[in-house]
Amino acid sequence: MGEDGKRFRTRSGGTVPLRSLLREAQSRCFESLRARNSALDNKELMEASHIMAIAAVKYADLHNNRLTNYVFSYDRMLDMKGNTAVYLLYTHARISTLLSRVEDQVSIYMKSMRLDRTYPHRFRHPSGSDVA
Questions:
Q1: Three-state SS for 126?
Q2: Is there a contact between 63 and 83 (Cβ–Cβ < 8 Å)?
Q3: Direct distance between the N- and C-terminal alpha carbons of the chain, in angstroms, rounded to an integer
Q4: Burial of 52: CB neighbours in 10 Å, binned 0-12, 13-18, 19+
Q5: Which end of the chain, N or C, is less surrounded by CB atoms within 10 Å?
Q6: CB atoms within 10 A of CB 46
Q7: CA distance 56 to 83
Q8: Is the Cα torsion angle 95, 96, 101, 107 positive or negative in sign?
Q9: Nearest to residue 57, comparing CAs of 32, 74, 82?
């Protein structure tokens, strides 16, 4: 159903073709990314917006119950909050960034430590004292 609550009519041409749907979703994602003052250039923004648009359309289609009517809305499909693909992609990016920072910190910490070979689970600080 459309946002106005009326059903789409396929014979009268009231539906949105898939190409148009993807094009509109990509342009909205592109504008959203560009509005955030991203450090990416236009080519990278286009690639990211293409991925976001396809994910948003797929997720919006698949997360609805196939036996019930649902209201089609670009705004809801591309929302940064809630049960949307854009939100899941954003969350994945944030978690990946946090994990890479933790990985960097652990590698720095492990370089400053040295493993005591006599007991495999015992770490030794460079000063010679046991840590664990």
A1: coil
A2: yes
A3: 62
A4: buried
A5: C
A6: 15
A7: 10
A8: positive
A9: 74
Structure tokens that stand for 50 in this block: 């293409």
Residue pair 52/60 in contact (Cβ under 8 Å)? The answer is: no
- Phi, psi of 130, rounded to the nearest 5 degrees: -75, 140
Output the tens digit of pLDDT for each of the chain's 132 residues.
556 666 666 566 667 778 888 998 899 889 888 888 778 888 999 999 999 899 988 888 888 777 777 777 777 777 767 788 888 888 898 899 898 888 877 777 776 665 444 445 555 556 665 555
Q: What are phi and psi of 115, to 5 degrees?
A: -80, 130
- 62 exposed, middle or buried (CB, 10 Å; 0-12, 13-18, 19+)? exposed
